[in-house]
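Here is a protein:
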Amino acid sequence: MDYLNKGQWSTEQEIAINLLAEGGHSYEEIAEQSKVSPHTIYNWRKNPDFMDEVIRKARRLLKDNLPDIYESLVHQAKDGDPRHIKIILEHLEKLEEMKAKHAENSLTFTWDVPYVENHS
């Protein structure tokens, strides 16, 4: 099956994209549900545009589940699980680094020099 233009995927490719983004499926399962061969799935995965779409879909799925993920993470940390406490602390540290980096990149300067109209 030929690749279609970026963003214009066949029904079979859409099914494969969704299953790859979900994770936990073998290539044989994906091929069977997509009604293509495992070799076709292998070839599609070599297409950077196809894999970009898989990653975009996976990020959307993750974003949709983030509130539940954070709630579970916090609950486990509150129960004293050191792994979850470490994850939360590392996440907070990264957020602080991102905040500092954003602040550096957002610096603006104002000049307190009044505008003087030139009448020459």
Notes: The domain at 11-105 is CATH 1.10.10.60 (Arc Repressor Mutant, subunit A). The radius of gyration is 24 Å.
